[in-house]
């Protein structure tokens, strides 16, 4: 029998960036908030002497336990979906801070084109440019409308950067200057500038200087140790939820974090949700947490699964194209080229977002009239600190074992660079999320099923971005250039990117979206769902900056709802 607890104003399911932002803003406004996090408590003090590549980067210490919860995967509806038994294509975070703890810190704004992609594409190229089967739609919000929330997130996180010359207009500069311009980045800057492109320093959540944010939280200066992605920061120098928004929420006295609390159901009566049911993962006790407002702030896949299990919303049907829950699942393509150089470079030093980016081939910043794809890719180089277990680049004519491999691996460890192309993905009617009918998690609930494959659009963009990357690294002085292999079918391994999006998409019409532009559910006005699952497509950037902006928009909506009730649009 579940124990019913005292009712609160707001309960968040997950305490990462989105849950932390919603909690901080609502608690500052005087609302009583409970944050339920199924992982354990953790913070900067837990990351002293964390430079253990095997434990964290290879064996995924900070990630979700797939023996308890995973997904099933298939390329097409004709195939049998099988469980993902170990981390592969993407990494699911778990614990206080969520994926915001072990991220690299790349913090971009999407382009104005992204938010109105369907209408702008049709206006410029005509309706026939969008190929059959693709489900592009506008987001129900414009860049100008979301810009203040981007600004708010960047100030909270202290983002270090400089303005994107091809991006949307900014009200303010970044709160801290860009990171160091290293000799490696100078190579990229010169090569791209010589070719007439517009490179800029990557907006970074690894801070260039010590910074106190508007809430009074201090984030320290990056030490360039090279242990960011898949690691927590031992210096408190990476903008993460547990050093920014979570302490802010706690200080109000209106916020309680409950770790080891796995939510298994959102409770609903009529057209309102009444709270959530969760299980203490240590004691196995079951609780009901009533709340005036429920906010789903977990990872993309978990938000969608929880709505499906709770029977809230209409599941997407690929046969008819109707339904919205699970629709428009998207990923990204990772193109690029490796360059082998004669001179040694300090590749082992760096930071997660110490890099340069250019958007000359991103969004609609170039003419697509003669291209057989839409959107594009951001072209980048990053000096994140290559680590010896996972970084053994050798030219293709070198054996992958034995004495010759060992010798070449040591030689090229400091003589190899990679220029990448982070490419957008567009929603296709055959790529979606649903519940698996065979496999269950540790709590007896169906696993989430992913049906996904690369499209011809993805393959064409991947080749285009690879070619541009190879030209740039050749211009940088590489003696040998090895382009990335062409992509065929998507596979759940190896690791590619953790930029999963869609499934709980936003929009202006309940027939084509799950939530409105305040991230308020169309079917229950006291339920909000926020995260990268709200993206109707994925762009040529990392999602965190946009997720943070949407979380501030969501928090504003929750506060408005607490005062007036009803639909916010």
What keyword list fits this structure?
569 residues, globular, FAD/NAD(P)-binding domain, Gluconate 2-dehydrogenase alpha chain, eight-stranded mixed sheet, six-stranded antiparallel sheet, oxidoreductase, alpha/beta, 20% strand
Give a written overview of the molecule:
This protein has 569 residues and is of the alpha/beta class. The protein has one domain (3-564): 3-Layer(bba) Sandwich (FAD/NAD(P)-binding domain). The chain contains 11 helices and 20 strands. Strands 1, 2, 3, 9, 10, 11, 12 and 20 form an 8-stranded mixed β-sheet that branches. A 6-stranded antiparallel β-sheet has the order 6-14-15-16-13-19. The mean pLDDT is 97.
Mean pLDDT: 97
The count of helical stretches stands at: 11
CATH class term: Alpha Beta
CATH homologous superfamily title: FAD/NAD(P)-binding domain
What Rg is obtained from the alpha carbons, in whole angstroms?
Answer: 23 Å
User: Helix content range of the residues, please?
Assistant: 10-25%
CATH architecture: 3-Layer(bba) Sandwich
């Amino acid at each position: 029998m579940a124990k019913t607890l005292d009712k609160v104003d707001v309960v968040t399911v997950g305490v990462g960036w989105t849950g932390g932002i919603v909690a901080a803003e609502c608690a500052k406004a005087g609302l009583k908030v409970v944050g339920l996090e199924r992982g354990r408590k953790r913070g900067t003090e837990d990351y002293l002497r964390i430079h253990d590549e095997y434990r964290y980067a290879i064996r995924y210490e900070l990630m979700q336990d797939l023996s308890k919860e995973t997904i099933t995967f298939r390329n097409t509806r004709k195939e049998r979906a099988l469980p993902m038994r170990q981390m592969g294509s993407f990494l699911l975070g778990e614990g206080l801070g969520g994926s915001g703890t072990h991220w690299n810190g790349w913090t971009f704004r999407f382009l104005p084109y992204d938010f109105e992609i369907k209408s702008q594409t049709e206006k410029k190229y005509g309706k026939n440019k969008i190929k059959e089967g693709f489900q592009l739609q506008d987001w129900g919000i414009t860049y100008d409308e979301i810009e203040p929330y981007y600004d708010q997130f960047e100030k909270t996180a202290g983002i270090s950067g400089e303005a994107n010359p091809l991006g949307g207009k900014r009200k303010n500069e970044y709160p801290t200057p860009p990171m160091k311009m290293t000799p490696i980045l100078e190579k990229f800057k010169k090569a791209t500038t010589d070719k007439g492109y517009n490179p800029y320093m990557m907006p970074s959540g690894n801070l260039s200087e010590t910074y106190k944010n508007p809430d009074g939280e201090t984030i320290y200066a990056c030490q360039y140790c090279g242990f960011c992605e898949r690691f927590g920061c031992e210096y408190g120098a990476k903008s993460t939820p547990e050093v920014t928004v979570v302490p802010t929420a706690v200080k109000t006295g209106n916020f309680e974090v409950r770790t080891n609390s796995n939510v298994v159901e959102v409770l609903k009566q009529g057209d309102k949700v009444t709270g959530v049911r969760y299980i203490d993962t240590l004691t196995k006790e079951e609780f009901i947490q009533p709340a005036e407002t429920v906010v789903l702030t977990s990872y993309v896949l978990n938000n969608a699964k929880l709505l499906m299990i709770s029977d809230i919303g209409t599941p997407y049907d690929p046969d008819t194209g109707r339904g919205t829950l699970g629709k428009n699942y998207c990923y990204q393509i990772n193109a690029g080229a490796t360059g082998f150089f004669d001179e040694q470079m300090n590749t082992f030093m760096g930071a997660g977002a110490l890099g340069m980016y250019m958007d000359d081939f991103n969004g609609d910043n170039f003419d697509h009239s003669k291209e057989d794809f839409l959107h594009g890719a951001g072209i980048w180089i990053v000096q994140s600190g290559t680590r010896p277990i996972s970084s053994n680049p050798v030219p293709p004519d070198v054996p992958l074992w034995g004495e010759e491999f060992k010798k070449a691996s040591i030689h090229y460890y400091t003589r190899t660079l990679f220029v990448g192309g982070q490419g957008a993905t567009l929603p296709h009617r055959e790529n979606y999320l649903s519940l698996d009918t065979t496999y269950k998690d540790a709590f007896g609930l169906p696993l989430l099923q992913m049906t996904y494959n690369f499209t011809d659009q993805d393959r064409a963009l991947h080749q285009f971005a690879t070619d541009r990357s190879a030209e740039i690294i050749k211009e940088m002085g590489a003696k040998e250039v090895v382009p990335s292999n062409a992509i065929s079918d998507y596979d759940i391994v190896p690791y590619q990117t953790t930029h999963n999006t869609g499934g709980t998409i936003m929009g202006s019409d309940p027939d084509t979206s799950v939530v409105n532009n305040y991230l308020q559910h169309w079917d229950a006005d006291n339920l909000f769902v926020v995260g990268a699952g709200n993206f109707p497509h994925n762009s040529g950037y990392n999602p965190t900056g946009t997720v943070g902006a949407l979380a501030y928009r969501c928090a504003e909506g929750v506060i408005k709802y607490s005062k007036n009730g009803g639909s916010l649009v």
